[in-house]
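This section describes the prediction task in plain terms. A model, or a person checking by hand, is given the sequence of a single protein chain and must write out its three-dimensional structure as a string of tokens. No templates, partner chains or ligands are provided. The sample shown here is typical of the held-out split.
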Amino acid sequence: MTVARPFRAVRYDTRRVELSAVMVPPYDVIAADERAGFFDRDPHNAIRFELTREVAEEAAADYGWIRGTFDAWRAEGVLVQDGEPGYYVMGQRYVAPSGETLERIGFFAELALEEYDARVVRPHERTLAGPKADRLKLLRAAEANLSSVFLLYEDPQDELGALLVAAFEQAPIGTARDNAGVEYRLARIVAPAAIAKIQGFLAARPTVIADGHHRYETALEYRREMRAREGDRADAPWQSTIAYFANAYARGSLLLPIHRVVAKLPAPSEEAWRKRLPDWQVTRLPRIDPDRIDAYLAEHLAPHAAHPAFVAESANGDPLLIHRAVALGESLMVRILESEILGAVFGLDPTAIRDGAVSFPKSAKRAAQSVRDGEGTVALYLNPLSPEAVFRATAKGDVMPQKSTFFYPKVPTGMVFRDHRAAADRSA
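The expected answer:
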């Protein structure tokens, strides 16, 4: 079902540049005050393919400089294109919130675009119009895929695992380390037998977008524009994009919860929680130390992962474990939280949530600090979804509430690029 082709990547020549100095996080997780640091880190830093230096410049940007920069770096030899198509294997070694060291190993490929109705590439959350309009301007100007969609596939038996690991010994490209301490290694797979196995494995399966919904939908819109202009040519480069594929069931594929912070509405008292949620059990918990909050939630919230459950914390009150004895089954806690808690308790509909009534900190520690700093009134801590829940929901065509999942680590920009203008960009 999923068409994942080997391709001739354009990538940094690791003899000329340090990957650590030129790679960047995805554009949508780079804070405004972090942009200048990436621009200044190296004159060839990949942020020049993603963002303007100042946020204020973004609205008027036509990204016209990107194509010229891309071509200039190729002419200088900073960027090179491989001579034969392959898959590009990337490992990301990191320390999980539990303290355990893990490594996620996946690979970059050329992904044939499919509309969502085909149920081949499946979304799991809604998107916003603003980011897609911005990314479409960039794609038109660049005529290249410069950042990757992140897809998950189901491989409970890890049938591709050994094949991917072997690439680091057989055809290594380089290593890197990012600001968060994540260690990277990059390699290629070009052996025909290995390519055939990977291609055949994915051809029998759908995939789920873990991250990059805006990028994928932008690629679809660009394809519609190009079809209207040039006709529906099967071999056109805009029929595809680049994607990073990872096994959802591998130990290194970490799925973290995204916690919620209610911005301004008053925090309910313990008694108010009991009255508003008569079918739920409310238990007072010890105070939270933000520096140890991951261990705290593992102790108090994780044992209730099979049931509707969350921890609520206000700045001036004791944390409360709020849960129901009934099993979750095929229900999703993020959907229950949106309807029964944010909706029924706080009176917030999805539009109000999207418009900023709720924030989505990147970690439990940041959520805890938000209520302590007065940036929110109530933090709502959740258990993570399971990969099975994500695939089950998307198989039914369900779209989850905003910010339901946080797949870690993020897939950086700067490992591989795909140039639409390059000759023989695709494999035969």
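For orientation: DSSP finds 13 helices and 21 strands in the chain.
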